[in-house]
Amino acid sequence: MTAYDEPMMRALALAARAGAEGDVPVGAVVLDPSGAVIGEGRNLREQTHDPSAHAEIVALRTAARAHGGWNLEGHTLVVTLEPCTMCAGAILQARVGRVVFGAWDDKAGAAGSQYDLLRDRRLPHRAEVVGGIRAEEATVLLRDFFESRR
């Protein structure tokens, strides 16, 4: 059991909802420095026809509105799947301090598997990365979603 199990369970519930609605099952929550959830999101790309509507982007947008500004320094993003390069860029632009994720993305991950943008020393901001939290549950959601479409 980790400190991130509860927020990851919330993210997994959001992911399941995305999958039920026809989007890739990925969910995300943003925690403020005290650990309170101030933003959440799920993949909405299919539903909104917006290529940027990944769970992380949706969660960052809601968190920034709740926070009253774009700078989320000291905040934590908890997401069911390792962020892609687009989401990693948004995470860095928002100055999120920590990213916690479930399943590794061996095809497009940008937090250590294919790329490591979140910890790239060439960039002006870096985030702490914690991967593999409730990875099996996140992986099963994704696997079942894609198997049902084959």
Task: Provide an overview of this structure.
This protein is 37% helix and 17% strand. It has 150 residues and is an alpha/beta fold. The mean pLDDT is 97. The chain has five helices and five strands; from the N terminus they run αββααβαββα. The chain has helices spanning 5-20, 45-48, 55-67, 85-93, 135-147; strands at residues 27-31, 37-42, 76-81, 98-103, 128-130. It has a five-stranded mixed sheet.
Between the first and last Cα atoms, what is the distance in angstroms? 34 Å
Mean pLDDT: 97
Q: Roughly how many Å is the radius of gyration?
A: 14 Å
Helicity range: 25-40%
Instruction: Give a count of the beta strands, DSSP E runs of length 2 or more.
Output: 5
Indicate the low-confidence ranges by residue numbers. Answer: none
> In percent, how much strand structure appears in the residues?
15-25%
Structural class: alpha/beta
SSE order: HEEHHEHEEH
Strand order of the largest sheet: 2-1-3-4-5
Shape: globular
Largest pleated sheet: 5 strands, mixed
Number of helices: 5
